[in-house]
Amino acid sequence: MLRVQNVTKIFGNRTAVDQINFRIDGPAFVGIIGRSGAGKSTVLRMMNRLTDASSGAIEVDGQNILALQGAQRREWQSQCAMIFQQFNLVPRLDVASNVLHGLLNRRSTLTTFFNLWPRSDILRALEILDRLGIAEQAPKRAEALSGGQQQRVAIARALMQDPKIILADEPIASLDPMNAQVVMDTLKRINTEDGRMVIANLHTLDTARRYCDRVIGMRDGRIVFDGVPSQLSTGV
Ligand code: ADP
Ligand code: ADP
């Protein structure tokens, strides 16, 4: 379903990602691990088209998503929603509106600018918040929530897009262990219950072992491990 072929990213004279190849079939939960600077974020950002690759192809259902332009590129970005370490919510905006922002690309400027969301969108946002256990937070400002709750709001915003793939860039790196577990459990549910592929950059082996079906280890822009977590030794 998703095939990364010889993908390379060069910044100036630094090769951040060096000719990587992997294939993911079906709705797996894949962890990418490696030290800071290994190239993990760059891989996710190229998949989501936030960063352009220097060379290579990423095929999804037979289409090279690295070649998509304009509206097609935006449509692809809706299909692979991204979650960030720092949540990237609008802090002073209420939680429900933050979740509705998942539809920014799909509704008219008039709707989004004047906050005139259709009732069906609002109901769906509330349903998703309810599913993630934070419905009662809907009217609060995002900044009033705990980190774990904010990350669940970010996941709810991603789910508004009904994405095939969720890309999570260090989703628990700013959270305490308890909140980290809630967020990882939430991502796991979305993977198993909805059948969405999840690719998460993680910095601890323990988390990867616990949640991932497969782990890709990176070092200096290259893949140095690709397999099931039980085969994983330390030293990536
Ligand atoms: P990781 O996510 O594993 O920490 P990154 O993908 O963020 O790694 O970075 C990989 C390498 O690419 C690092 O050396 C980083 O400094 C470099 N890099 C990342 N983004 C940029 C950028 N926008 N400009 C220049 N170098 C970058
Ligand atoms: P992380 O390691 O969590 O991925 P970084 O601190 O490496 O985050 O990068 C944060 C931001 O800075 C990213 O947008 C990345 O593209 C950019 N960046 C990283 N390294 C460099 C660099 N050497 N030169 C310019 N931008 C960079």
From TrEMBL:
GO molecular function: ATP binding
InterPro entries in UniProt: AAA+_ATPase (IPR003593), ABC_transporter-like_ATP-bd (IPR003439), ABC_transporter-like_CS (IPR017871), ABC_transpr_PhnC (IPR012693), MetN_ABC_transporter-like (IPR050086), P-loop_NTPase (IPR027417)
The entry's keywords: ATP-binding, Cell membrane, Membrane, Nucleotide-binding, Translocase, Transport
Keyword match Translocase: yes
Endoplasmic reticulum among keywords: no
Domain of life: Bacteria
Domain named ABC transporter: residues: 2-236
Cited Pfam families: ABC_tran (PF00005)
NCBIfam families: ABC_phnC (TIGR02315)
The protein's name in its UniProt record: Phosphonate ABC transporter ATP-binding protein
